């Protein structure tokens, strides 16, 4: 080994030893400093936020309404925006909506001086640790579902903000008369369940116009369209005291297009097909088959569609009445066709029997009595003089009687024909009447629906 290199090695080893001896206490110093710093940040007692929260809650009593003067009311400010209409149940008269609900009130015991707490302006506190108003929705018929948010926001002047989404199932009188074109008006009334207006008063956060026309959060692509949310403040007077209440009316309109396409148009088509059957001659038997198939088709259609039409105990939708009237017309026109065929058939079958036979029987007897004298003279009188004369008169009489019987027969035929024609004209007239009332009902219904649609479109 090169002695120079050996020297270098020795020097390096010595250097390392001295460096290590110098660094050992330094390392321990660095470690102590780092651990001290870590201990500093793991102890929350040192943080301003912790200090503030502790200071606020230490002497707080959540049982006490947070006012300095007992006769001062706590005003709770409310806000609501409709997020979605989840279900409209006309049969049970229930409305299920999802709303964003916000309430703000002032807590006089939860305020601080920001310059004493590191300029903290807002802090979140557990809701369970502070006083909160007991505001409920009056119309609820099912447990309101809302995610449990444990915290509220408090700012340095003691204003508390609480916001949460709620799924409300509320009772609402749903009007289904104008079914695919209906507008529903359901109210959500907020009030304190216990506190009278002297203790807890209510007010709006935003202006009422803003709330009324707020559709920003509303999900647009559902069956229902949000028209407006008008609201009113009122004081409910009852034996237990006067209660402040705020009522929001959720006004929604159904989008009718899907029902027009799936319910109204097929039904009108079926009626038009049945109308077409009036162009078949009324005594045509194929008409019965045709009408029966339309009736069967209509029944199948109604059974299929019965789930789509809302059923409610109080009012029947106009469209249901229309379907029933259409069905009644189908049945009426079918029974009329059956009657017509029955009378025509009866007439044809009894034609050779009753009217014709009994009339022809009379004429037969007539013919026999007339021919009798012809036979008698031929057999009895045998004078050669008058024989030619008598033969002549005999043939003439025969011809005469034959002609008479022929004319009788024709008369009878004509009479039967006239009877048949009378029946036919009567039935034709009935047919016409039915056809016209059909057209009238269909026209009336179309006009009613059209004008209703136009009216509600313009709202
Ligand atoms: C907040 O505290 C600072 C300093 O302690 C003080 O100067 C100030 O007056 C206080 N403000 C209020 C509103 O008490
Ligand atoms: C606290 O919030 C209320 C309502 O938002 C506001 O009026 C008040 O000025 C706020 N206080 C502070 C100190 O920011
Ligand atoms: C909704 O109903 C309330 C009463 O419950 C009524 O005051 C309000 O005018 C109605 N709104 C509409 C748009 O029909
Ligand atoms: C719904 O439509 C309205 C306007 O018609 C719009 O202002 C709103 O942002 C829409 N909402 C959603 C969730 O798309």
UniProtKB/TrEMBL annotation:
Where is each Neurotransmitter-gated ion-channel transmembrane domain found? Answer: 263-348
Which key words are in the record?
A: Cell membrane, Disulfide bond, Glycoprotein, Ion channel, Ion transport, Ligand-gated ion channel, Membrane, Postsynaptic cell membrane, Receptor, Signal, Synapse, Transmembrane, Transmembrane helix, Transport
Q: Which SUPFAM superfamilies match?
A: Neurotransmitter-gated ion-channel transmembrane pore (SSF90112), Nicotinic receptor ligand binding domain-like (SSF63712)
Protein's cellular compartments: Postsynaptic cell membrane
Q: Which reaction does it catalyse?
A: Na(+)(in) = Na(+)(out); Ca(2+)(in) = Ca(2+)(out); K(+)(in) = K(+)(out)
User: Which GO CC terms are listed, alphabetically?
Assistant: postsynaptic membrane
* Membrane-spanning parts: 257-276, 288-305, 317-344, 438-456
Q: Highest taxon of the source? A: Eukaryota
Q: Which residues form the signal peptide?
A: 1-38
Pfam families linked: Neur_chan_LBD, Neur_chan_memb
State the InterPro entries in the record. Answer: 5HT3_rcpt, 5HT3_rcpt_B, LGIC_TM_5-HT3, Neur_chan_lig-bd, Neur_chan_lig-bd_sf, Neur_channel, Neuro-gated_channel_TM_sf, Neuro_actylchol_rec
**What broad class describes the main subcellular location of this protein?**
membrane
One of the record's GO molecular function terms = serotonin-gated monoatomic cation channel activity
Bilayer disposition of the protein: Multi-pass membrane protein
Task: Show where the Neurotransmitter-gated ion-channel ligand-binding domain sits.
Answer: 51-256
Function statement = Forms serotonin (5-hydroxytryptamine/5-HT3)-activated cation-selective channel complexes, which when activated cause fast, depolarizing responses in neurons.
> Subunit structure, per the record?
Forms homopentameric as well as heteropentameric serotonin-activated cation-selective channel complexes with HTR3A. The homomeric complex is not functional. Heteropentameric complexes display properties which resemble that of neuronal serotonin-activated channels in vivo.
Q: Which NCBIfam families does the entry mention?
A: LIC
Family label: Belongs to the ligand-gated ion channel (TC 1.A.9) family. 5-hydroxytryptamine receptor (TC 1.A.9.2) subfamily. HTR3B sub-subfamily.
What is the protein's given name? 5-hydroxytryptamine receptor 3B
Please report the organism this UniProt entry assigns to the protein.
Answer: Chrysochloris asiatica
